[in-house]
Design the sequence.
């Protein structure tokens, strides 16, 4: 099941000097189990972007209806 979210987050792989900042609507290939847990959202984002959870810093998010 997928869900659409407005997200604002930073992705930076371990050891990298640069980071990427993302804003916008993303369709995630999974739905977080806890609707207010930033780490769970980071886990799902990381999985979708082929990164580690620790590489994602969630700044803002909410599910679109």
Sequence:
């Amino acid at each position: 099941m997928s869900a659409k979210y407005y997200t604002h987050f930073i992705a930076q792989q371990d050891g990298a000097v640069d980071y990427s900042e993302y804003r916008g609507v993303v369709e995630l290939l999974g739905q977080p189990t806890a609707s207010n847990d930033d780490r769970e959202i980071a886990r799902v984002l990381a999985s979708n972007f082929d990164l580690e959870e620790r590489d994602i810093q969630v700044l803002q998010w909410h599910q679109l209806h």
About this structure: Strands lie at 3-11, 20-28, 56-63. The first strand starts at residue 3 and ends at 11. The chain has one domain: 3-63. The domain at 3-63 is CATH 3.10.20 (Ubiquitin-like (UB roll)).
